[in-house]
């Protein structure tokens, strides 16, 4: 989402270390932050806000502990940490949403703020549960720290003479509501989400359960930013820039860094694990996941930093911005609307002028009883689940007038294009070219060679006949795509590990960017389906991206493209 920023603000932005953190002070600070947000909205940016909760969740817990130290006061249930996180998310979400709404109103902007209660999935066996590291609550003196430790808290000294309670902080694996948050951001709302790092949950056989932990909000923010596909992640904190050699005569601020340099400073121990370390790691993670840039700066310098005049700016210089136009495609128009959707291994971004839908080999010979697939001993019913989601995607492409290309595997009636090696492979009950219940098996023109009626091509759609597994081999597919300036392929079809996989690899070597829709592809062997999908997006997307049809359709629904000429 070009122009979209995720602003992650620390819990300390509302409550400073050592102060009691009155509600009025928090409102005052929320208003200052909201003014900056409204300025960005006024500049035409879409804004997603996340926030910490360290001080606030500590206050909530302490309140309960003071009233019911032994959890036995009648009518007052003990408050688990995960529920305190949910409470803090509600309270801070309210403070920020109301402040942002008021600031937007003052400027006459008709955008609204919405706070979303957000859950973050963590691993139940994350080693962090055995090693509390996350500071929460107000800072304490040594004597208070000793008293609390005696009550069972884990307390550490975060700075000389400054003590904080620490709790487990597992790594966030997934933001459960990422897709809904993305859709809301697209409406132009200022969305407040993943507060306090999100309510930590684990998935069990009977559903989701809260777990006692506080997720680091910078890590959760980087994950949310990548899942939603925002353009810029901004980690707003107490300093204008990140420094190396901090507190020494060699201190210098980092202004523009690339991942290699920043990683080297991190590995050299320049950033403490309890403060700047997680921010730097999160910035690096966002960029590694496909994010364009990450900025670390202070609230007063926010706007300057977004315009490159302040802050520490991390960009992925080693990766060209997607999509990559091919040499033969027409020049792209600056500022053209792009579509972004949540995908593995990182968000897939495409230009709607340069996309085509590939429907690979949805043929009766493979999908119906009596065809070639069944003659090889396969259960053809395994492929049929891909029909319904593919028909929904097909409908959207047709509605928008975007190109659709169907392929069919098959041979000339005289079988002059059939290698003996292919004909004789396996031990089929019917060989290619022999008479079956749907005519000659995999021979062009026979009924079995045709595409299933649910996904049948309509007038104007390209239908390619191919003799091999790959759609580029011995066909004019590449010429057709280049002539139309297509760079991005949404791939559906059967089977995942054979014709789909071969085609996606061929496409990748030719510079096309493939998004494989996991539920619109299928295999006779579920484990091969899963493995092929894993292989596509392994090693940072070695051959392409994988997403569900729902992720694509939601992204299309929430982006207006009526105005996009083809
Ligand atoms: N190398 C560094 N460069 C800049 N700031 C640093 C560095 N190391 C530690 N810090 C401190 O870390 C703070 C940010 O961490 P923290 O206060 O935990 O974040 P948050 O703003 O999310 O509450 C900065 O305000 C600064 O005081
Ligand atoms: N959850 C979290 O990281 O909060 P702070 O930013 O307030 O530490």
TrEMBL record:
Region annotated Disordered, chain positions: 314-335
One Pfam family this sequence matches: AA_kinase
Enzyme Commission numbers on file: 2.7.2.2
KW Nucleotide-binding (keyword) present: yes
A molecular function GO annotation: carbamate kinase activity
Domain Aspartate/glutamate/uridylate kinase residues, every copy: 4-298
UniProt-recorded name of the protein: Carbamate kinase
Species per Swiss-Prot/TrEMBL record: Cellulomonas wangsupingiae
């Amino acid at each position: 989402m070009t122009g979209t920023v995720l602003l992650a603000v620390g819990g300390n932005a509302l409550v400073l270390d050592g102060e009691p953190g009155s509600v009025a002070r928090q409102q005052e600070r929320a208003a200052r932050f909201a003014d900056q947000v409204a300025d960005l909205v006024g500049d035409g940016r879409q804004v997603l806000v996340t926030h910490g909760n360290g001080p606030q969740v500590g206050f909530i817990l302490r309140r309960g502990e003071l009233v019911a130290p032994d959890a036995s006061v009648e009518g007052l249930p003990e408050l688990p940490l995960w529920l305190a996180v949910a409470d803090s998310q509600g309270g801070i979400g309210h403070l920020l949403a109301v402040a942002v709404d008021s600031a937007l109103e003052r400027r006459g902007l008709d955008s609204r703020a919405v706070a979303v209660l957000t859950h973050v999935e963590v691993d139940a066996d994350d080693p962090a549960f055995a090693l509390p590291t996350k500071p929460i609550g107000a800072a304490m003196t040594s004597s208070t720290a000793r008293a609390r430790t005696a009550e069972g808290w884990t307390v550490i000294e975060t700075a000389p003479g400054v003590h904080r309670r620490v709790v487990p902080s597992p790594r966030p694996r997934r933001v459960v509501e990422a897709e809904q948050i993305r859709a809301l951001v697209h409406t132009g709302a200022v969305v407040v989400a993943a507060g306090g790092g999100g309510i930590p949950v684990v998935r069990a056989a009977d559903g989701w359960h809260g777990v006692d932990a506080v997720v680091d909000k910078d890590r959760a923010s980087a994950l949310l930013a990548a899942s939603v596909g925002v353009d810029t992640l901004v980690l707003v904190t107490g300093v204008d820039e990140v420094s190396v050699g901090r507190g020494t005569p060699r201190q210098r601020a980092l202004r523009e860094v690339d991942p290699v340099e920043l990683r080297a400073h991190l590995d050299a121990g320049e950033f403490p694990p309890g403060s700047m370390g997680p921010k730097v790691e999160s910035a690096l993670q966002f960029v590694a996941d496909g994010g364009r840039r990450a900025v670390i700066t202070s609230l007063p310098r926010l706007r300057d930093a977004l315009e490159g005049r302040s802050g520490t700016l991390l960009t992925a210089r080693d990766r060209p911005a997607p999509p990559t136009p091919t040499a033969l495609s027409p020049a792209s128009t600056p500022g053209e609307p792009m579509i972004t959707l949540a995908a593995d291994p990182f968000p897939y971004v495409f230009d709607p002028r340069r996309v085509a839908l590939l429907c690979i080999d949805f043929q009766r010979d493979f999908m119906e009883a009596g065809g070639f697939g069944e003659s090889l001993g396969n259960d053809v019913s395994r492929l049929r689940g891909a029909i319904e989601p593919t028909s929904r995607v097909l409908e959207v492409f047709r509605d928008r007038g975007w190109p659709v290309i169907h392929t069919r595997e098959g041979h000339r009636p005289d079988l002059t294009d059939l290698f003996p090696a292919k004909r004789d492979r396996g031990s089929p009950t019917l060989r290619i070219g022999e008479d079956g219940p749907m005519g000659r098996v995999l021979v062009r023109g026979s009924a079995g060679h045709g595409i299933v009626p649910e996904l049948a091509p309509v007038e104007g759609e390209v239908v390619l006949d191919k003799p091999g597994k790959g759609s580029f081999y011995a066909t004019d597919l590449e010429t057709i795509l280049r002539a139309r300036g297509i760079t991005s392929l949404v791939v559906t079809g059967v089977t995942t590990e054979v014709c789909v996989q071969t085609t996606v690899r061929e496409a990748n070597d030719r510079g096309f960017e493939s998004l494989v829709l996991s539920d619109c592809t299928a295999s006779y062997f579920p484990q091969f389906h899963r493995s092929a999908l894993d292989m596509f997006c392994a090693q940072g997307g070695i051959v392409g991206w994988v997403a569900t049809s729902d992720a694509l359709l939601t992204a299309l629904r929430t982006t207006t493209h009526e105005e996009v000429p083809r």
